[in-house]
Amino acid sequence: MNNKEYLAALSAKTGFTANDTRKMVQAVLKALTNELEDGNTIQISSFGIFEVKKRLERVINNPGTGKKMLVPPRLVLNFKPNSGIKEQLKKGGENNG
Predict the structure, then answer these.
(1) Residue 21: other Cβ atoms inside 10 A
(2) d(CA 69, CA 93)
(3) Is pLDDT above 80 for 93?
(4) What is the pTM of this model?
């Protein structure tokens, strides 16, 4: 499902116009992004936890040349779904379980 299809489905489900739905989704995503940029963890109780983690620097082997390379540290986004969603996905989704 692409962004346009998602917004159309969400708009139909909520009864808001497509434009209002797009604005609300953009506002939510902007707020989430701002919190993550500040290093905060976001916990949505019925969905999961978003957090920024620091991946430490490490040495890897380049498979093409065989030389060792240093990969610098970086920040990565991590998501941990809540247990209800995990179980639902293991069973093949809500329609199949």
Answers:
(1) 20
(2) 42
(3) no
(4) 0.71
